[in-house]
Amino acid sequence: MSATYSELRAQLATLTTEAFRPELAEIDQLPTAEIAALMNGEDATVPAAVARQLPAIAAAIDATAARMARGGRLIYMGAGTAGRLGVLDASECPPTFNTDPSQVVGLIAGGPSAMVKAVEGAEDSKELAEQELTALGVTADDTVVGISASGRTPYAIGAVEHARTLGALTIGLSCNADSALAAAAEHGIEVVPGPELLTGSTRLKAGTAQKLVLNMISTITMIRLGKTYGNLMVDVRASNEKLQARSRRIVALATGAPDEQIETALAAADGEVKTAILMILADIDAKSADQRLTHSQGHLRAALHAQP
Which Enzyme Commission numbers does its entry carry (predicted)? Predict the structure, then answer.
């Protein structure tokens, strides 16, 4: 047994996410309904763990939004499940908030193929993270979020360490207290949902916790950037029939206008929901609406209150 292996094994034994639960040692003998109830009970504890980190999450979001308002990017980096969750969150921003794919980026150790098949050794490489950040041309306006349930993944730690040397904002999201990842980042977020139902299977509660936090980071950042009007997704990209129908419904909810007026406004606005809403509520044409939105940096509420 190598010294490195022994050291890693000892390190894992100290992690809450790796803890063995003897009371569940015979879970495989239970009826399916009881196992499902156990899992459901475990999952119900995750939001409380997230709630304990809300001040840290809010501070990280405000800092992220400030950078993105200057043209910066939000970059998620992780390995395995953590990396997949980052890629998932990033990939949902363009259709939800009409962001350019380059604005919110998800990188997984080992590249795109690692989304469906493990790439051995990729998570252990700090150098790989550095190379990918260099390829992206990271600047001081960007935000890099390292994601790791254990909080010890070299790829995630390397990402935030290198990003800090470039002046970028760094966030470290882990599911263990006193993690190396949180210590390496400017904003450490440690959501600790406790030992897993299956020992060390961090795609369970830890994965759920990470998903909830990433939901907050992207969604609230986009709210701060004016991508919503109230709780309406006014920057939604109508790329299919369902989203086209949703666009019409959003304009209707925001304006109360009749269908004919909505169709006319959307046509004149080239399908842009935010522009159509402003046209109707301010009683202006598409060109004027676009100008107001440009002057208000895309914030619909500010554009509505702007002087004509």
Answer: 4.2.1.126
Contact 156, 130 (CB under 8 A): no
Q: Tell how far CA 222 is from the center of its chain.
A: 11
Residues 6+ apart with CB under 8 A from 218: 74, 89, 90, 92, 93, 104
The per-residue pLDDT for range 229-283, each reduced to its tens digit, is: 999 999 987 777 887 899 999 999 999 999 999 999 999 999 999 999 999 999 9
Tell how strand 104-108 and strand 169-174 pair up. unpaired
Packing angle, helices 241-255 and 259-268, rounded to 10: 110
Provide the terminal-to-terminal Cα distance of the chain, rounded to the nearest Å: 75
pTM (two decimals): 0.91
**Between the CA of residue 289 and those of 7, 246, 247, 269, what are the distances in Å?**
62, 21, 17, 9
Q: What single-letter DSSP state applies at residue 125?
A: -
Model confidence pLDDT, tens digit, residues 117-154: 877 677 788 999 999 999 999 999 999 999 999 999 99
CA 168 to chain centre: 17
Active-site residue set: 92, 123
